[in-house]
Amino acid sequence: MENLETPSCSCPYPIVATIKTDADLDAKPGEEGNGRDAAACLAMDLSPIQNAVASGSYATIADACDELMLQVASRGIAYQEDWPFTVHLLGHIFANDLNSARFLWKSIPQGFKESKPELVAAWRIGQCLWTRDYAGVYDAIRGFEWSPEVAGLVAAFSENYTKKMFQLLSSAYSTIGVADVAHFLGMSEDEATNYALQHGWTMDSPSKMLTVKKPRIITEQKLDPSRLQRLTEYVFHLEH
């Protein structure tokens, strides 16, 4: 089968990738593509995914990957080494779509999982999220040396996750121990204390307890229509 030439670029994976049909995978060595002309070898344009990663538009990665996967699947094409499984999986995790992340993980061939440690490391984050192992999420993030291609995506997820956990703590607690905050935020006690103080919490040093600054909740007061009618009638009687 003729190889497609991949243009040189700084993207984390080829913009144009060589992929095989299921028929090619079943063919004997040397027989790939015989009699299959255009259907035997197709170009897979990964530029939408590459652009999303390069621009930091991480929230769009999962949809871009899903759309391309549907296009490929509709042509009966098997995924090869160039498919960005790790980016795809992290895209779902970033979007907090754990169901899609689990489905994707189960669909990935075992051989890919065994040969790509970064893919396994990405799924470890998903596992910890699924089991609500808060400290484990941070351990999974810090326990792997991420490639430059996905390091920004992982860092952005980590930052968002920390903010989300802090918001949950702010809503659920009035006072909370420093050790507990450190656990939920994946920080040392000193780091957790400084983070909380920067967000307006107060600290009782002897007890090592933090008092939560509750987020300001602005509620919109809606006037009951029946009350409005009674008020209108009351004003009418006063004027007459």
Automatic annotation (TrEMBL):
Subcellular localization(s) per the UniProt record: Cytoplasm; Nucleus
GO BP of this protein: COP9 signalosome assembly; protein deneddylation
GO molecular function: peroxidase activity
GO cellular component terms listed in the entry, alphabetical order: COP9 signalosome; cytoplasm
UniProt-listed InterPro entries: COP9_CSN8 (IPR033205), CSN8_PSD8_EIF3K (IPR033464), PCI_dom (IPR000717)
Keywords (A to Z) from UniProt: Cytoplasm, Nucleus, Oxidoreductase, Peroxidase, Signalosome
Protein name: COP9 signalosome complex subunit 8
PROSITE patterns: PCI (PS50250)
Domain of life: Eukaryota
